[in-house]
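Cont'd.
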Amino acid sequence: MDNNESYTEKLVQYLDGDLTGAELEDVERQLAEKKELQQELDNLSLAKKAVQSYGLKARVASVHQQMMQELKEDELPAESKIYPFIRTTLKYAASILLLLSLTGTYFYLTSSSAKLYKDNYVPYQLSVTRGESTSSALEKEFIAKNYTGVISTFKSLPNPTNKDYFLVAQVYQLTGEPNKAIRYYRLLSGNSVTDNSFKDDAEYYLALAYLENNDPVAAKPIFEKIHADPDQLYHDNISYWTLLKVKLLALKAEKK
Amino acid sequence: MNKVVAFSDMELIETLKREHVNDSVIRYLYRNYYHGLCNYIKLNQGSAQDAEDVFQEVVVNFIEIVKSDKFRGESSIKTFLYTLCRFTWLNELKRRNRVLLREEKYEGNRDHEDKDVSHLLVEREAKSLVMAMIEKLGDTCKRILVAYYYDNFTMKEILPLVEFQNEQVLRNKKYKCLKSLEQMLTQDPELAKRFKNALTYGQ
């Protein structure tokens, strides 16, 4: 170690505050006398400050890592606070969806065309005007619920009217012969018919006859048509739920 | 999680001036100002990583500015940090040579406070170069010098942190490490001058 180097060591000790007494006085005197020593001390002091700055930077970098983790963790609950309404709504929506699917599944498994037919079928009431004496023989048999008489009278008619066709179809439907009822209802509800009397009635009862005949696939488009047409005479008879049940029955029948 | 400590502006400044920088002060700065300043960076062409880097640099500069008595308290800490952040980020954009016309306009219209802060950050690059010099000293030198000059550990406390036979050997090593850094600065007097200017924050 030469003299210069050994004096540099003294300067470092001076910088660190390690010198006392005669050693301290000697260094202070040398610094006052020699500019190059003062320059060296300045550079050593600058090096010390650089280390302190580096130390602070390293310390902040270390805390930075911890804080980034903490701040990112804090972001999650903050986000969940922003959307409590959406979360609650979704929760309720999920519950309702579950309830609907359970109800749907229950209905899908337990329902039948026969049951739906029974729930919706209302026998046709032939209107009788007081004092009216123009009722045909077939109508009189129908009002008297003489179903055999209706059929035989119908067969004897040379030119049956739409009313005659409809009433005999009603009788077949009431007596458990839906295939025959369907044939007459289709005749009345078809697009080729020029006389539209009993058309709406025939359409509605045709759909019911299909259900009675355990054919919900054929019944479905007729129910949909009546449900979609507010001018149809039986529009109010087809609720959304009735339509939904018909659709489920059709789906069930198609899967078989 | 670390204990959350809250400071008023005055308490924070006094704590920084008086004490060795405590981690709770740094954490307080992050908890209270990181998101706001981070958004500024992200809204001005910066990535999330840019925001992290700039905020780290802002915190270091802020602490050094306060410690060197250059924070005059004419604005709130929040406003001051925001201004530091803007300048640090604009400097970084300049360095990357992709400054937009908008910045030129900003530079021309900046207010009085901005001008006050700008002179505090003029030697950003010099500071960065000197930090790179310290990296060249190697891990052992860095550990000894930082423990001694930043953490204010005694030689006795540092000895278990490094593999040296005794305190005298450690003392010699510390001397050599500091001398190496001093020589690097001596060899580049212009950089040393700029760095000195950077550390004194325009004094």
